[in-house]
Task: inverse folding
């Protein structure tokens, strides 16, 4: 049979290079898991990129085998497995079990190292308690004696020792740029440690479905210089704190469900990107509350 | 001869239309009902998915209300996992094909089988009845307490959920026991365990998994219902209960559950591939060991759904490694299939085979993301994000729904006696395959960008719109693919080419009989001499004279011995019976009684149940 040149054969590598470059461009400067801003998140992102690279290579190899098996020349050409039952067994065991085993041992070891590094506790940590409520986050700074709603300020270059718990149902604390998730479970206190050296604002969110307001549980995470952090602490200290009451939550949910511009503010705290609260018409029933955002 | 066949048919047919509807115990009829019911629920669950994708297409969208969105994703997961996938592969394909592939005339317990179907149908109807009483379940398909407990979900929604799941478990467990006994004791003479079709191995492994996996779920839903209705505090942290207890119980069931769906699906794959590449399967032993091995390992990995719950990191790493180890049997499987295709003498590109090739591509991708989520720190990031949504759809749609479509195109000629249209089939495949990837591949990236699961909308400045819109377009393309399937099936029923006994020239026993098979399946019980009996030993008049149709006017088949089946005894099979239907109805009364915490109703339902059970168990005259 005459073999015609296949244009795809020459185009495919170029297309692949373009696709990877394009994806790389798209993803650079991203937020989320692949835009890490703390050593912990950087380690996890590198684990992601490593396992992604291995997956791409292995995928191409496996699909190559599949494509060859499907499209190999047949007719007079016999497969290498014809009359050689052991060849097939060796092929299956090596490519299906032995090679994967070595890859898995490697990536597993790497991930255990990262697990250990990310769970290492550090001295001089700033203690913060994150309490998930329906449907807002309360942050307690026991050493500073302050509390905030939906606003987490942290100083850069100081380890943060963050504990989570749930006030009512299960929530999950997640700032993907800074670290993985930690569930906030009622009746249980969990803890994690992370440090960031990058000043910036990150959108925190609730990652465990907690009821109708789950999507509205964003919070602001502000990483700032220690001096600014101290200023912020003293500002907060002077304000009176109160927990949102039922009508505050209802007001927020009403905004979240009906206002076209999500996210929205709690009467007592704003997530980043939200319209600052304060319009007279939309004032909550009881008004007041503190503006905790920086 | 003609009179003998006529007598055989009269013996096995239902006596009237009414009896046929409510009293049939024919595994083929019940199998078809399972498939039709499950397919309708797949359509409903799929529509939920399309509506959710429409809502998420652009940020700040308000196509459906947040409350409806919550109900939709809860129903989408619950219905597709519990009421579509398991009943489709185990109840539908299993019921129809197991006796045919084994060369026998029905399952070991035909009335129990009918009972399983009715309980399944009524549980599904029950969960949808919640629509008329204040809304569907809305706490997600894994219903974590305390969200799913009374104070936070005060309506009846979650009661409907817990009760329906509880009773569905009875149906699934009964089916599993039925399969185990049938496979152990009713294989055709000569079908030793090394000649069992791989689909049968899949059903056998999955049946054992069901028997061990369902009790924790039954326990958990029972405890949840006690918490909700009768004031216990199993999951109430304020009264010393533990919210993680539910997660352990649910996932000890839930992880094996995904393999309960997957294992029969890979059985379908192992059955279809050899037919279309015209060669015996390569690595039969590996495929069997992998099937059994996956079922076994699946019980040791449940904690990988709970990596972010703050459990000890050493335990997490152990469960991560356990989850990873599933790669080894899966790898053996994938390469056994590739070797089979490689060895194949020619490739017949039927639609059925294309769906299986699609499966191979998607399951490899889903497998990679599966390994990624078993890496503890990476899972801390991606769990409960859209990365998981992508992963689970690659393994469940790619790994289960694609083989189901492949199975439909393969066996519908056997079910209906008519071929499906291949051109429409190819269109169906490409729409579905492309639509699937367009819809679910971007979700990986959305997850990496930090989009969390189960949110009804997202802010504009999150920058997630392009990928979400792409995903929505993909969902519509998939929907089109499903419509083409429905159209193909409809036209096949009316004008489809007649199939004949064995249109694909396949090797397993279900193709040895007519399409569709007569109520008695086989006029003579075949004797098996190889793993592909129709290839090595094609059917002929009087496969074995010893086993000719029994003389009596009662339903009979043979019980055989376990490892190397030989005829042990004649089995007298039960006639059609209304008792399974009424028995299931008394369970419905029980379900409503529990829902209303009405003790009188519960007692009445129990009494009815005992009466029907006595009727069911009453010895037949000959035995009395």
Result:
């Amino acid at each position: 049979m005459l073999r015609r040149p296949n244009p795809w054969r020459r185009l495919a590598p170029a297309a692949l290079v373009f696709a990877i470059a394009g994806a790389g461009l798209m993803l650079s400067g991203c937020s989320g898991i692949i835009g890490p801003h703390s050593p912990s998140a950087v380690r996890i992102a590198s684990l992601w990129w490593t396992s992604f690279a291995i997956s791409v290579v292995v995928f191409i190899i496996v699909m190559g085998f599949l494509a060859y098996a499907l499209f190999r020349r047949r007719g007079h050409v016999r497969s290498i497995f014809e009359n050689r039952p052991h060849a097939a067994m060796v092929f299956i065991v090596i490519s299906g079990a032995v090679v994967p085993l070595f890859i898995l041992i490697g990536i597993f070891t790497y991930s255990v190292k990262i697990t250990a590094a990310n769970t290492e506790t550090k001295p001089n940590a700033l203690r913060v308690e994150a309490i998930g409520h329906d449907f807002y986050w309360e942050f307690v700074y026991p050493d500073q004696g302050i509390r905030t709603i939906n606003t987490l300020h942290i100083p850069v270059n100081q380890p943060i020792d963050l504990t989570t718990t749930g006030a009512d149902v299960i929530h999950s604390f997640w700032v993907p740029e800074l670290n993985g998730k930690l569930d906030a479970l009622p009746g249980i206190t969990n803890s994690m440690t992370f440090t960031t050296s990058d000043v910036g604002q990150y959108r925190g969110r609730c990652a465990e479905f907690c009821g109708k307001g789950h999507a509205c549980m964003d919070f602001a995470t502000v990483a700032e210089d220690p001096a600014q952090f101290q200023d912020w602490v003293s500002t907060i200290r002077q304000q009176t704190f109160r927990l949102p009451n039922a009508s505050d939550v209802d007001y927020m949910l009403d905004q979240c469900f009906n206002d076209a511009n999500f996210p929205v503010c709690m009467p007592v705290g704003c997530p980043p990107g939200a319209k600052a609260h304060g319009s007279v018409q939309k004032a909550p029933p009881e008004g007041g509350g503190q503006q905790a955002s920086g | 001869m003609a009179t003998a066949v006529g007598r055989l048919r009269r013996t096995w047919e239902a006596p009237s239309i009414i009896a046929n509807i409510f009293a049939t115990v024919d595994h083929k009829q019940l199998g078809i009902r399972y498939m039709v019911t499950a397919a309708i629920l797949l359509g409903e669950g799929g529509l939920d998915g399309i509506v959710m994708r429409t809502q998420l297409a652009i940020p700040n969208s308000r196509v459906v209300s947040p409350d409806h969105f919550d109900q939709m994703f809860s129903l989408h997961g619950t219905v597709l996992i519990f009421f579509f996938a398991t009943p489709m592969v185990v109840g539908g394909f299993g019921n129809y094909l197991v006796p045919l592939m084994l060369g026998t005339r029905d399952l070991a317990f035909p009335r129990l089988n009918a009972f399983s179907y009715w309980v399944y149908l009524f549980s599904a109807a029950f969960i949808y009845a919640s629509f008329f009483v204040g809304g569907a379940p809305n706490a997600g398909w894994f219903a974590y307490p305390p969200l799913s407990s009374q104070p936070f979900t005060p309506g009846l929604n979650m009661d409907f959920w817990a009760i329906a799941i509880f009773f569905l478990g009875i149906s699934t467990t009964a089916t599993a026991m039925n399969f185990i006994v049938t496979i152990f004791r009713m294989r055709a003479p000569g079908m030793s365990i090394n000649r069992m079709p791989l689909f049968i191995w899949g059903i056998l492994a999955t049946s054992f998994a069901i028997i061990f996996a369902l009790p924790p779920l039954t326990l958990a839903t029972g405890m949840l219902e006690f918490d909700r209705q009768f004031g216990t505090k199993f999951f109430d942290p304020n009264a010393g209960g533990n919210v993680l207890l539910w997660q352990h119980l649910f996932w000890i069931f839930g992880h094996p559950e995904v393999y309960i769906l997957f294992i029969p699906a890979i059985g379908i794959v192992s059955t279809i591939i050899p037919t279309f590449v015209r060669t015996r399967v390569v690595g039969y032993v590996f495929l069997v060991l992998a099937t059994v091995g996956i079922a076994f390992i699946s019980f040791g990995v449940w904690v990988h759904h709970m990596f972010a719950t703050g459990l000890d990191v050493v335990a997490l790493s152990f469960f991560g490694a356990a989850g990873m180890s599933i790669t080894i049997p899966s790898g053996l499987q994938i390469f056994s299939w590739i070797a089979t295709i490689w060895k194949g003498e020619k490739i017949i590109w039927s639609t059925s085979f294309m769906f299986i090739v699609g499966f191979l591509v998607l399951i490899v991708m889903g497998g990679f993301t599966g390994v990624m989520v078993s890496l503890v720190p990476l899972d801390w990031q991606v769990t409960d994000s859209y990365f998981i949504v992508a992963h689970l759809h690659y393994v469940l749609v790619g790994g289960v729904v694609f083989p189901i479509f492949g199975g439909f195109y393969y066996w519908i000629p056997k079910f209906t006696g008519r071929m499906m249209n291949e051109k429409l089939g190819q269109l169906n495949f490409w729409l579905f395959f492309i639509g699937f990837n367009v819809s679910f591949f971007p979700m990986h990236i959305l997850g990496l960008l930090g989009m969390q699961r189960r949110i009804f909308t997202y802010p504009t400045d999150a920058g997630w719109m392009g990928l979400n819109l792409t995903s929505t377009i993909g969902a519509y393309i998939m929907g089109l693919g499903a419509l083409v399937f429905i159209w193909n099936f409809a036209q096949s029923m009316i004008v489809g080419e007649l199939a004949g006994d064995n249109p694909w020239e396949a090797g397993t026993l279900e193709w040895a009989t007519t399409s569709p098979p007569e109520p008695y399946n086989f006029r003579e019980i075949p004797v098996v001499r190889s793993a592909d009996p129709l290839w090595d030993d094609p059917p002929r008049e009087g496969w074995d004279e010893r086993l000719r149709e029994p003389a009596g006017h009662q339903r009979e088949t043979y019980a055989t011995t376990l490892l190397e089946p030989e005829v042990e005894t004649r089995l007298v099979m039960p006639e059609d019976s209304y008792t399974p239907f009424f028995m299931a109805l008394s369970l419905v009364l029980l379900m409503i009684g529990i829902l209303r915490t009405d003790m009188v109703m519960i007692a009445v339902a129990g009494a009815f149940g005992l009466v029907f059970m006595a009727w069911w168990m009453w010895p037949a005259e000959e035995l009395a």
